Every structure is written in C-alpha cells, then in structure tokens.
Amino acid sequence: MKTVRVTINPAVPATMALGCIDAARVDATTEEGIAAHQAADEAEAMQDVAKFARRVRKRLGLSQAEFSQRIDVSLDTIRNWEQGKRCPTGAAKALLKVLDKAPEAALAALD
Description:
The protein is mainly alpha-helical. The chain has six helices and no strands. Helix 2 (31-60) crosses helix 5. The longest helix is centred in the middle third of the chain and has 30 residues, at 31-60. The radius of gyration is 22 Å and the shape is elongated. 10% of the residues are buried.
C-alpha cells in the first residue's frame, strides 16, 4: 500500500478534505437560502419515491389501473405517487417495499 501525504491549507479551499466546511460560507447562509435548499432536497426525494413506485409496478408487469386494483388503492393515488405529487406513507410504503422484495408472496396475501 502506498502512503500519500497531503498538506491542508485552510486559506486554500481546494486543499481542504471532503467533509470539511467553509465556515464563512455557512455563516453567510440566510434562512431563505436554507429553506430553498430544503425544498430542493424534498423535491429530489419525492422524485426518488416516484421512481421507486413506478419501478415496483413495472416489475410486476401491471398497468396503473391493474396495480391500483391489486393493492386496493385508487388509480389517482397511484398516478400521484408516480408523478411525484404525493408520497406513499405508512402501510403503503411498507407494501411497496414488500412488493419489491417478495412480489409473489405479497400479491398472494392481497388476493
């Protein structure tokens, strides 16, 4: 194994290791900036959930209408999940996880 030595100079941000923060930049962040970052993070998370819901349904080979009937959820709810307008919570999120990991068992239990 090769050893690499690195000199870190706080005055030169490029020499700072990943995970270190720029204190001046953090102090300069406004509440509005923080809120904007939170909103962007939330939107990205919603898109991840939408992709997951869509992937589970497509792996089962079902249309949105068939999927909604099989899991007893309204078609509008399925559409909202897949478009990122709503996020499945509680039992719905758990059901999607089970459908992803053990689809045959989950669908058999729902029949």
